[in-house]
Automatic annotation (TrEMBL):
It holds the Pfam family DJ-1_PfpI. Residues 20-192 form the DJ-1/PfpI domain. This is DJ-1/PfpI family protein. CDD domains: GATase1_PfpI_2 (cd03139). Signal peptide: none annotated.
Amino acid sequence: MHDHPFEALAARVRQRPLAVAILLFPEVEVLDFAGPFEVFSVASRVALRGALPTHPAFTVQTVAATPALVAARHGLQVLPAASFADAAPCDVLIVPGGVVTQPLGDDATLAWVAETAGRASLTASVCTGAFILARAGLLGGGPVTTHWEDVADLRAGYPRLEVVEGVPFVERGSIFTSAGISAGIGMSLHLVGRILGAELARATARQMQYDWVETAV
């Protein structure tokens, strides 16, 4: 286990809000991005009640290739807060999944993910977002996870990876990969707990009325 990214973030959040960037792209799974967006936003609101009374813990920004509306899965239209060209630097990068055909074939998206992850303290994928991290050259070899339905494809496409089944997420230093869709909520709560403490993470889950089982890594 590598604690250094969390130690640095825990110190940094005492001085200023931590910036969370969440990638959007056509056919992105709604809960893949909305779940982490809710967790970090609610955690920031809960922290203002006592843990960090002077400033928000997190600022959360959705980022897409252009500032135009993004058509997520099931027809939801989402307006990103920033484009690749004007996105603020982030401490935490969240790469959701969904139908990832477009981002996997888009050099601009892959370059932005690679460059942003290189500067961020933590990078985390949800569901098939693991394919984007792999294509962007961020995973190399070693353990990862993804949606159960996509395990075989990830193994076939990236044989150097050890694709783990039946776990909510996998931690590799500063990179996390989670299982499918709602698993991104639990992973995000875990990240909140590692940065701000388990009590704050539990209070966030309680505020969301989310039945969360803490996972030790």
